[in-house]
Write a structure and sequence with these properties.
63 residues; alpha/beta; two-stranded parallel sheet; 1 helix; SHCBP1-like
Length: 63
């Protein structure tokens, strides 16, 4: 099965099913804002080191 490439995090969240793991490419900084995730998903960073993938969120959980 070929990996799918999505243009942004919003597209991934819309496309994947519950509990589906997906990878975020290493390098650069990925920004997530105004995304509602209403299902369990597994986000996995690419690269060999924890700092190889950075996902930045503009704010925390609002309740």
């Amino acid at each position: 099965m070929e990996p799918r490439v999505y243009p942004n995090l919003e597209a991934v969240v819309s496309a994947v099913g519950p509990i589906t793991p997906f990878f975020i490419a290493a390098g650069g900084s990925h920004v997530a804002c105004n995304i509602q995730i209403n299902k369990p998903i597994c986000i996995i960073g690419g690269g060999n080191l924890p700092d190889d993938t950075v996902l930045t969120c503009s704010r925390g959980f609002d309740k």
